[in-house]
Specification:
The chain is of the alpha/beta class. Helices cover about 20% and strands about 15% of the residues. The structure holds zinc ion. Zinc ion (ZN) binds near residues 55, 177 and 179.
Length: about 220
């Protein structure tokens, strides 16, 4: 079993992708929640971005993950959501959930690690957050979920010139979090990010899928402000 508290790699100076294209439709209706679960970044929204944080939802559905953005008490948020293998969007698209220019609330303000941006706190202000739908424990990640997450990071790498760190939530907040968990194949994920293999990655093509095909919310999301 891999230890998610050790998951981190730093992007090399060479090898930055040229192509920043990404097809990531907004999760339907998500715009109405931004006022309660995002902040204006304290850093430049392009040059100030230093890290991408990888999460898993500890819940079984995209709708369940989105439900944390809706709640009045202790809402949380993230920039992208990677669907689970039994959802209609799996293999086709990732959901955009929060504007990249805003700070999403996916890591506690007090959490930090000396190996990530010099140990700075308030990680949300200088990071982007990706949530992968996964129940953890005995729920495996699909190969496509790993590939889609890698493609998202490559998109970020191409777009943000000072992006350096790719790190797990568990490493930033080891006393309270273990996501994305030991089932997340960090080695393969790192290889896909660094080496690209874009030709092998399935395109993240947006397709119109009726919300009625989404499963009902049934998740306890992992993240918090
Ligand atoms: Zn998390």
């Amino acid at each position: 079993m891999n230890d998610p508290k050790l998951y981190q790699f730093d992007l090399p100076q060479r090898g930055r992708p040229q192509d920043a294209a990404l097809s990531d439709p907004w999760y339907p209706g998500v715009q109405s929640y931004w006022d309660r679960c995002t902040s204006k970044r304290s850093v430049d929204p392009i040059y100030g971005i230093r890290a991408v944080v990888i999460h898993a939802t500890a819940g079984a559905s995209s709708a369940g993950a989105i439900s944390v953005m809706k709640r009045r008490d202790d809402p949380a948020s993230f920039h992208w959501l990677v669907p689970d293998e039994d959802e209609a969007q799996h293999g086709h698209l990732v959901w955009a959930c929060t504007p990249e220019a805003l700070a999403a609330w996916h890591v506690r303000n007090a959490a930090s690690h000396p190996g990530v941006n010099g140990g700075a706190g308030r990680v949300n202000h200088w990071s982007l957050g990706i949530e992968v739908v996964n129940a953890q424990k005995n729920d495996p990640f699909s190969a496509w979920q790993i590939e889609a997450t890698a493609r998202l990071v490559r998109y970020c790498w191409a777009k943000y010139p000072n992006l350096r760190h790719v790190v797990s939530h568990a490493k930033l907040d080891p006393g309270r979090r273990s996501d994305p968990g030991g089932n997340f194949d960090w080695g393969r994920f790192k290889s896909l990010v660094i080496e690209g293999a874009d030709n092998e990655l399935p395109a993240l093509v947006a397709k119109a899928v009726p919300l009625s095909r989404l499963r009902s919310p049934a998740a306890t999301p992992c993240c918090e402000v």
